[in-house]
Design brief:
Layout lengths: L3 E5 L5 H15 L2 E8 L8 H24 L7 E7 L2 H12 L3 E5 L5 H7 L1 H9 L4 E4 L20 E5 L4 H17 L2 E5 L8 H12 L3 E5 L13 H8 L4 E4 L12 H7 L1
Parallel strand pairs: 1-2, 1-4, 2-3, 4-5, 6-7, 6-8, 8-9
Antiparallel strand pairs: 5-9
């Protein structure tokens, strides 16, 4: 079975997120599901007003998804989905239903206030999703992630941030699987919080290595790398490359999953 990548498409970051997710899908031989989530029309409107509003909304969503589809590599097979409801919940459910290997979303805002107000989608997915979540910061170039042939030595670098916890080991294993599939070099980094905040350490190393991406684990019971402790919240604001967050309990593998295992993961 071909791996599936669910790409969350929104108005402001449609091309950037689709390009990053699409390039990765092309290298992994994965198919893509472009997914836009919106709230339903307010119930206070009349039935005819609601129908007209829904029609206009569907047309705008179709145009948005087409914009995203146009930047995908021609070899990538893509489906489109429109979902109604909460963005994080709907993207997570779509990925779980399809047994997706990865969810790709944008990071909204670089300041702490913007992240607190607008970045809850990537944070919620990073805490609750049942597969790894790739967050695309606004600073990522529009030409997508660094590809193998673009690196000076012919091999791009993937950085795995670890803290000694079981969950960070899961994330490092997923990073290893990614590196093996992509032909990349894996660099495992254990930041020391006493010397420098882990987010700054990982960002600095990723910049010096011109890394393709950073992979970290999120353990809700630990204070060091958990989503609430700020690493997974701060790192996408600092990094200039995509950040993959592996939530606690997520199925983190690119391997084909038997149908029974997909159902258990969902």
């Amino acid at each position: 079975m071909t791996p599936t990548i669910v790409i969350g498409v929104e108005q402001r970051r449609a091309e950037r997120v689709a390009r990053v997710g699409g390039e990765l899908a092309a290298e992994l031989g994965a198919r893509v599901v472009l997914t836009h989530v919106r709230e339903d029309v307010p119930p206070s409107n009349s039935k005819s007003q609601r129908e007209r509003a829904r029609h206009r909304s569907r047309r705008r969503v179709h145009e948005l998804l087409q914009r995203a589809k146009e930047v995908l590599p021609p070899t990538v097979d893509a489906d489109e989905r429109l979902k109604i409801g909460g963005i994080a919940n709907q993207l997570g459910e779509t990925a779980a239903d399809m047994g997706a290997a990865l969810i790709v979303v944008g990071s909204r805002g670089r300041s702490p206030l913007a992240s607190a107000l607008l970045g809850s989608i990537s944070r919620d997915l990073g805490r609750d999703a049942r597969c790894p979540v790739l967050i695309v910061p606004d600073g990522v170039p529009l030409d997508g992630p660094r590809r193998i042939g673009d690196a000076p030595n012919g091999r791009a670098t993937i950085i795995a941030g670890v803290d000694g916890s079981e969950q960070s080991s899961v994330a490092a294993h997923f990073a290893r699987e990614l590196a093996d599939r992509l032909g990349d070099r894996l660099l495992v980094v254990r930041p020391h919080a006493a010397a420098d905040p882990p987010a700054h350490t990982l960002q600095a190393i990723s910049a010096s290595e011109d890394a393709r991406m950073i992979v970290i684990g999120v353990d809700g019971d630990r204070a060091r790398f958990r989503i609430g402790s700020s690493l997974a919240a701060r790192l996408p604001r600092l990094a200039r490359c995509p950040v993959i967050v592996v939530p606690e309990g997520a199925t983190a593998t690119l391997a084909d999953l038997p149908e029974a295992e997909m159902q258990r993961a969902a």
